[in-house]
Amino acid sequence: xxxxxxxxxxxxxxxxxxxxxxxxxxxxxxxxxxxxxxxxxxxxxxxxxxxxxxxxxxxxxxxxxxxxxxxxxxxxxxxxxxxxxxxxxxxxxxxxxxxxxxxxxxxxxxxxxxxxxxxxxxxxxxxxxxxxxxxxxxxxxxxxxxxxxxxxxxxxxxxxxxxxxxxxxxxxxxxxxxxxxxxxxxxxxxxxxxxxxxxxxxxxxxxxxxxxxxxxxxxxxxxxxxxxxxxxxxxxxxxxxxxxxxxxxxxxxxxxxxxx
Length: 260
Description:
By secondary structure, the protein is α/β, with parallel strands linked by helices.
């Protein structure tokens, strides 16, 4: 099986998970283990990774020696805030340069502000960051972000935390067909079938947080998501049968039937 490669590093899991919204760091770690994820996202503005030495740190529960951290800019609404946040993350994580850029447009929809995202991406790439970027499902913007030098394009399936699944598979397919760096569906996945559909379309990976952390049983849901991503990838590689509108096709041979 061909592995996922992001910024020159190889990963066996195609499921990326967030670390927020859990009851505590113990549940966070249990869900991550069940998911099989190797890359974990961290909201620098909301999660303690050393900013407050008097509070529990995610670094102890989910050591960077065992997982690839993906600091993100959740809660940033301008390019300047996002750039400043990721520079802080690089300092806190000893020069770590793989990051997730997201610049939001408003606090109600959390839809990406693509103008500010493009501005921030240009600065961060020039500053030596390896940028995985959350964006809309606009194929033109996705291509512009790739041309800037982002190492992965992360279009939304639907709004962050909505659980609405993939609302526009056609746009995602255009992005997948036109982009050479990994395409990672980010935001909107609600259950295992959503993850499987994303992978069946040909996405390279899926990133999720609320779909797992917001489930009644996060650890079990994490396990379900792991299986869904693997099954979706297998189905994509296998190549589905053609769809045949208004035409039945027997699943067993019609010639040589007993009694004929």
